[in-house]
Amino acid sequence: MAEQDTQGVKGVLERLKENIAKLQPSFEEVVAEQAEMLIGDERKKLRKEYKAECKDFLRELKEVKSETEGCITDIDRNTRKCIHEVNREMDEKFRVVIRRERLKRSKELDEIRVETKNNTLAELFNPCNKYQVMKISVSSDFVSKSAPRCASCGKESVWLCFCGGCKITRYCDEKCQEADWENHKNTCIGLNSN
Prior knowledge:
It contains 2 helices and 3 strands.
């Protein structure tokens, strides 16, 4: 009986092995399907999380972009304002420099005019050559009915040069005085000696 029982147990074990061998592929398929389902659910969950993170990231990116554009606009506005201010200051400084230069040149021109006027007056009232011919203006109060005549050529004129030596004889210019010098020198020297 013990042998029969052993044989019976061996038979049950054989059948169990056969049943296990039959169930093994279907079990692996079930496990694979269950794993696939779990992985699919996990993938879906991960995809949803990924999409949500992408949306959050894009929203943050848009906010950063908007802030950056605002900063760029502010920088551009402030830069233009600064450039405008610098240009205005430079224009004002340029105008001040131009005014100073014009005033300086105006003063220089005034000085030149005064100097030229003084030199012209000095030339008119000082001896103007080696024969000391002095030019003077004769105002209408001192002009007689007939204008004075040049001692050399006889031309009448209100403006004549006096001999610088005697201060009496009149000439048109240095040429007339030189032409008359041989005739006038004795008289001029005589008047000067007296």
